[in-house]
Amino acid sequence: MARADTLCSQSLLEAGERPLERPLGGEPGDVKTQFVTREGTYRLMTLSEYSRPNRVGYQTQGQTPPQVRVSLVTLPDQGERICFNHGRELYVYVYKGIKKAADLSKPLEKKVYKGTNPTCHDFNVASASNESVSLLIGFSTGQIQLIDPIKKELNKLFNEERLIDKSRVTCLRWVPGSRSLFLAAHASGQLYVYNEELPCGSAAPHYQPFKAGEGFSVSTCKTKSTRNPLFRWLLGTGSAINELAFSPNGSQLAIVSQDGLLRVFQYDSMELLGTARSYFGGLLCVAWSGDGRLIAVGGEDDLVTVYSMEQKRVIGRAQGHRSWVASVAFDWFLEAESCYRLGSVGHDTQLCLWELPEDALTPSKPRVKRRSDPLQLVGTPACPRLDECPVLEPLVCKKIAHERLTALVFRPDCIITACQDGYVYTWARPPS
């Protein structure tokens, strides 16, 4: 079986390593502050580090705090804004990237919540301007808040009385191109479509069937006047939805759930286009390639699985992590006709990079076994056995933190990572 590092044009060099001056959290020890790829050396920018202003770790009592997530938005003439959550707090800063040191003394927004924790957030790219930007925030108790960290005037609450859903909000996404529509996924396995310009009802909503398909159903509210939610999607048997991702052109929606399934829908028509399954355990994260041809998912099987939209099958599994994969992303800025760059971070504190060569996308005829149990997907195109599809070996697999890693974002001049102790790090790309 061919290895990814022999298929792609150049092999990678070993990265330099040295102990950090300040441990990232947990036990002290060596973590990598740089790593080398065929395009050059990526370096940790120690001054471009974002965290709570006093840099003191947040101590939680009792339950495990929500995963630290990162959201970014680019304003027309004012650069970027970054949002991240940590424990019961949420921060918005001017993101200066690799150009200037982070100024932690001047957050644009700092919120400390009582009785609930922020779990996810998303900026509205379509409506963002130099004077205003809409930011959605989801909470562990089910509510959703809409604020404007620039104008400060906007403050709306959805599902305030938890009449729509009482479970944790797991992911929020603005509908691409829309200034008002957004999706809210919950741990209940339900996904809701909201219009931020409409109110929520004063009583629990009553639903009527709208559409159904294999393993999913869509309902609308029975109301005399239009109210939120506009639609309710139920996936499978109610396993938690863990993440949503729209395709680059905004027409398709990929959803991963705790039942181990990736479901891909044509969003407007609500048609199921394809499915894939983890080797075992839940799927936690999902991302699209820049051309919309591939979807990568990661989860509790410690693997990154790559699904082809054209072939409607799994075309590769990437092995390298030793624990759950928390975030996965394609590096759109390095996508070429001959190769895709893919990255992931996990609870094993490692950053892994892979390259997927174009010839891996060549259609083939995978061996399909007939089985008496229609729910048993192992050994099918949706979940091939490990000896039935290419296994990618990591080009880079480096320990970059002491706490579990939770977020990975590729930007034109840097890579952004975050870990559970509330630190957001910037890695400068090699000079061009």
Could you explain the architecture of this structure?
This protein has one helix spanning 4-7; strands at residues 18-19, 30-31, 34-37, 40-44, 70-75, 79-86, 89-95, 109-112, 118-123, 135-139, 144-147, 155-158, 169-174, 181-186, 190-195, 207-213, 216-221, 231-235, 241-246, 252-257, 261-266, 271-277, 283-288, 294-299, 303-308, 313-319, 325-330, 339-346, 350-357, 391-392, 396-399, 405-410, 414-419, 424-428. With 432 residues, it is mainly beta. The two termini are 34 Å apart. WD repeats lie at residues 234-275. Keywords: Repeat, WD repeat. This is WD repeat-containing protein 20.
Largest sheet: 6 strands, antiparallel
Class per helix and strand makeup:
mainly beta
- The coarse silhouette is globular
Rg computed from alpha carbons, rounded to a whole number of angstroms: 21 Å
Termini gap: 34 Å
Q: Got a strand count?
A: 34
Pfam families: WD40
WD repeats: 234-275
Protein name: WD repeat-containing protein 20
Keywords: Repeat, WD repeat
